[in-house]
Amino acid sequence: MDKQRDFVLRTIEERGVKFVRLWFTDVIGTLKSVAIAPAEVEGAFTEGLGFDGSAIEGLTRSYESDLLAHPDPTTFQTLPWRGEIDPTGRMFCDITTPDGQPAVADPRHVLKRTLAKAADAGFTFYTHPEIEFYLLKSSSFGPDGPEPVDSAGYFDNVPGGTAHDFRRRSVRMLEDLGISVEYSHHEGGPGQNEIDLRYADALATADNIMTFRTVVKEVAIEQGVYATFMPKPLSGKPGSGMHTHMSLFEGDRNAFYEEGAQYQLSQTGRQFIAGLLTHANEIAAVTNQFVNSYKRLWGGDEAPSFICWGHNNRSALVRVPMYKPNKGQSTRVEYRALDSAANPYLAFALMLAAGLKGIEEGYELPPEAEDNVWSLTDSERRALGYAQLPASLDHALEYMEDSELVAETLGEQVFNYVLLNKRREWQEYRAQVTPFELKSNLEML
């Protein structure tokens, strides 16, 4: 770690870095940033930077507000959008109390704690997110809702289109930040894009997602458009998901791979999927944390609404992608409920905890879904045993409230804060009179 610190201090000096931003997230997953002068970095490494935790969503109770942000030198990068004028660096931070204990409500610590539990069982957890978002002409909107930058569709090539330049600039910026991008393309909705990040360990991926959102927002501003990760910004159009591929490794060996097994999927992989299916409803208030998230889950367009798994079945909640011959290391499972607005630290912690529970308890994997689950009738789905995901945030909170797994993984403070914050959101939503009601009822009744 000392070597890494020295490297950061040397880089700051050599590149003439003028400001260093210390980044961390609140419980909802909003990025927080404080800029310090280069001269303060060494002190921040040794002592941390003090701040008032009670002013940050869910981080502390007001009577224990003093917290310290400790920059993680392994996450140092210079921010490419700041350019050559006043070069600026950034590091993610771990949050502690003044006596050096990890802050229980630091989302990064929640994930680290769950990763440590996996490590005790011999596993390293890798994730690979496919992040969808919309590009809009601006953040303001008229009676017809937000206006997308184009009317293109899935994989469309739009000559001279905003999205091309946007994706090229974003991908280059991400690569400059050391974040490898696997694919980028136009998605199914007008103005909708997808950029997929390369596989990495879950902590690095969660940090990368937070950086990714910032890069996408910055490039949009630079190009005179607006980017949103809202799960369902346009009614009648696809929502923005963050399908996440996952695998567990034991050393260099993929624990999900077994040669000759069905789909080359090991017993460990099958139990991991069973854990995800069993606990899907309990973790939904975190994987899909907004009122709007449920408009995506229940709006069709390949969003999963029912708890089942399948091989290459895009209507299932968990998918086992095609096996590529001689690529045993790439056997993985894909969780399709997660949306782009989730707090990645908490969501990854819960998905991992659910999968590990399946392995620990030896959960039995139900038969796979071979049909398009959307096209079945309710009674057919019932007969096949496909339960529904929660239909609303309110519904998801009821499941979460009774979940030992979620309470244990998040810790008491984060668990209680999420419930409180999200109940408030639901109450505010429920108290509204919407345009739909006025249109449907005002003249008729």
Automatic annotation (TrEMBL):
InterPro entries, per the entry: Gln_synt_N, Gln_synt_N_sf, Gln_synth/guanido_kin_cat_dom, Gln_synth_cat_dom, Gln_synth_gly_rich_site, Gln_synth_I
Gene3D superfamilies on file: Glutamine synthetase, N-terminal domain, Glutamine synthetase/guanido kinase, catalytic domain
Domain of life assignment: Bacteria
Co-factor note (free text): Binds 2 Mg(2+) ions per subunit.
Organism lineage string: Bacteria, Bacillati, Actinomycetota, Actinomycetes, Micrococcales
Cofactor: Mg(2+)
Keyword Metal-binding appears in the UniProt entry: yes
Residues that hold L-glutamate according to the record: 296, 302, 314, 336
Any GO BP: glutamine biosynthetic process
Binding residues annotated for ATP, in chain numbering: 182, 245-247, 314
Keywords: ATP-binding, Ligase, Magnesium, Metal-binding, Nucleotide-binding
PANTHER family: GAMMA-GLUTAMYLPOLYAMINE SYNTHETASE GLNA2, GAMMA-GLUTAMYLPUTRESCINE SYNTHETASE
UniProt protein name: Type I glutamate--ammonia ligase
